[in-house]
Amino acid sequence: MSAIDDLPPLREIIARHGLSAIKGLGQNFILDLNLTMRIARAAGSLRDVTVIEIGPGPGGLTRALLAAGARRVIAVERDERCLPPLDEIAARYPDRLTVVHGDALAVDYGALADGPTHIVANLPYNIATPLLVGWLQAAPWPPFYDAMTLMFQREVAERIVATPGSKSYGRLAVLAGWRSDARILFNIPPAAFTPSPKVMSSVVGFVPKPSPLPADAAVLERVVAAAFGQRRKMLRQSLRPLGVDPLPLLQAAGIMPTQRAEEIDVGRFVALANAFAAIVR
Q1: How many domains does the chain have?
Q2: What three-state secondary structure class fits 34?
């Protein structure tokens, strides 16, 4: 019996099913259920909430989310080896766990949402960034989720919450800052995982902004990617891959041509994207 429910400890489940983390799937299992409960509590009250989890593996966080009172957990798992352990959890929590066997990058998450919805996950490291970008670009907005509590490598987490002028400030910080309020909640050391990664991990909380500055998400992404693609260069040069004269764009956005991408805040990036959209329409 574990500390949070009457199911066996995770080490016993992993041994019984012959599970081992697959590097190609970005898997790193957390076996300490007290730690998974801390992640679940960091998501706030989950009562009457549908939780979408990605990459549950043997189900440590899944169990914590259910034990914390989530009305329903929808777990997206690609690795078929993990399905039997998840079925055991589903039997313990009747009608509260749904397992979707498939590629997390191909799932229509909006279709999974059911009432108030939170995304809570120890994201597979190899797909964490594209998943996050997709959720930040969700349409329509406000999105299908009310909050996200996600684990990343510490370096990625720092890039998400970075501010202008810092070394970590870039594309992720602009996209996250445009449509959400994001903050690092706490760190998790490598020793907490099996196998242990070489880097620290961080749990990041996201609250969507109900009315972010208006912009076309795809256009903003394109402009930001160009700006940071040559971050050491002045914007009058780094924006040239957009295929238009950068100077009128910069003037319209109130940005000096000699500035660099790392100096530009979210509001001015949005203005730059809107100026570009007006030209290419």
Answers
A1: 2
A2: helix
Q: Distances in Å between the alpha carbon of 56 and those of 61, 108, 258, 269? A: 7, 18, 47, 36
The pTM assigned to this predicted structure is 0.94
Q: Which domain holds residue 154?
A: 10-208
CB atoms within 10 A of CB 243: 10
**Burial of 176: CB neighbours in 10 Å, binned 0-12, 13-18, 19+:** buried
What's the residue count for the chain? 281
How far apart are alpha carbons 202 and 189 in whole angstroms?
9
Query: Which residue, chain included where needed, has tokens 């706490």?
Result: 186
Q: How far apart are CA 150 and CA 128, in angstroms?
A: 9
Cα torsion at 128, 94, 91, 121 (round to 10°)? Answer: 10
Answer with the one of 208, 235, 255 that is the final residue of a domain: 208
- 265 shares a domain with 183: no
Amino acid at residue number 156: V
| Integer-rounded Cα radius of gyration of the chain | 21
Residue 1: name the closest of 35, 33, 28 by CA: 33
Q: How far apart are CA 22 and CA 247, in angstroms?
A: 49
What residues pair up with 148 in beta bridges, in sequence order? 119, 206
Shared-domain flag, residues 273 and 165: no
Residue pLDDT tens, the chain, 281 long: 467 889 988 889 888 988 776 676 666 778 788 899 999 999 999 999 999 999 999 999 999 999 999 999 999 999 999 999 999 999 999 999 999 999 999 999 999 999 999 999 999 888 999 999 999 999 999 999 999 999 999 999 999 999 999 999 999 999 999 999 999 999 999 988 877 778 899 999 999 999 999 999 999 999 999 999 988 899 999 999 999 999 999 999 999 999 999 999 999 999 999 999 998 87
